[in-house]
Design brief:
Strand 7 and strand 8 form a beta hairpin. This protein has a domain of 84 residues: PapC, C-terminal domain (Immunoglobulin-like, Sandwich). The strands form three sheets. The chain has a four-stranded antiparallel beta sheet with strand order 5-4-7-8, with no helix packed on it. It has 121 residues and is mainly β. InterPro entries: Fimb_usher (IPR000015), FimD_plug_dom (IPR042186), PapC-like_C (IPR025949), PapC-like_C_sf (IPR043142).
Length: 121
């Protein structure tokens, strides 16, 4: 699937699917788009402690993918609603996770990506 024709609020985490049709068969391939806003989120922690590099961030109610936190405490997320809860995990247990309540700004930044920050507690 060529994602260039998708609307700004849709993303495809996977654009190819391998199928093995038999002679004369018609095969249906399923794709699971992530519908919602694209957000570059900077995570802020208490006392300026960083979110560990490589932590996994996922948006509540969005099963189509997650983002990986970079060394600048930023994560790129797709399928984000105007008000969303983001859970960030970097290990097992309550001490190795935080939750950020995200409010998407009204206007997107460059390339239609919304840029914002949120406290991760």
């Amino acid at each position: 699937v060529d994602p260039r024709g998708l609307p700004d609020d849709a993303a495809l985490p996977q654009t190819t699917v391998k199928v093995a049709p038999t002679k004369g068969a018609v095969v249906r391939a399923k794709f699971h788009p992530s519908v919602g806003k694209r957000v570059l989120l900077t995570l802020l922690r208490p006392a300026d402690s960083p979110v560990p590099f490589g932590a996994v961030a996922s948006v509540a109610g969005n099963t189509s993918g997650a983002g990986i936190v970079n060394e600048g405490n930023q994560v790129y997320l797709t399928g984000v609603k105007d008000e969303s809860s983001v859970t960030v995990r970097w290990g097992q247990g309550q001490q190795k996770q935080c939750v950020a309540e995200l409010s998407v700004p009204e206007k997107p930044g460059p390339a239609g990506v919304y840029v914002t920050s949120a406290q991760c507690l």
